[in-house]
Amino acid sequence: MVTIGPRAAPWLLVALLISVAINLFVGGLAAGRLFAASPASPPPAAAPAQAGERAPVPAVRRFLAALPEEHRPVVEVSLAERRPQMVAATRELRAARDRVREVLVAERLDRAALDAAIEAMRARNGEVQRILHQALAQSAERLPLDARRAIAEAGRRSIAP
Description:
Number of helices: 6
CATH topology of the domain at 54-161: Four Helix Bundle (Hemerythrin (Met), subunit A)
C-alpha cells in the first residue's frame, strides 16, 4: 500500500488538476477538429449554409467523399432536413464546453459542479451524435447496397487505428 505524506498531498492535488485540465484541453482540441469547419470546403449543395452557420464537420465531409457522387444528394438532403436541429445541438454543446471551462478556472474547484458540467457536455455531445446517426439511418433506407457498403467501409477506415 502506498501512503502519501502530508507535504506531498497538496502537490498531488495540483498535479491531478493539471492533468485533468490538459486532458480536457486535448479533448476540446480533438472535438474542435471534429466539429470545426474548413474554409476550403463548401457546405453540401442541397443544404446551403445560413448566415452564421458552419460548413459540415470534417467527419461528415469524409463520409460524403466516400460515397459515389450520384448518391451524395440523398445524404445531403437528410442532413439538410436536420440542419436546424444540428445547429441548435452544436450551439448547446459549445455552451456546455464553456461551462466546463468556467468551472475549471474558478478560484475554488467545485468537484460536484465540474462533474455536472462534464455530464451535461457528454449529453450534448450525445445529442449531436444522435442527430447525425438519424440522418445516416434515413439515408441508408434510400440508398442501394453499393452505397451502403461505401458508407460501411468509410466508417471502418475512420475508426481504424
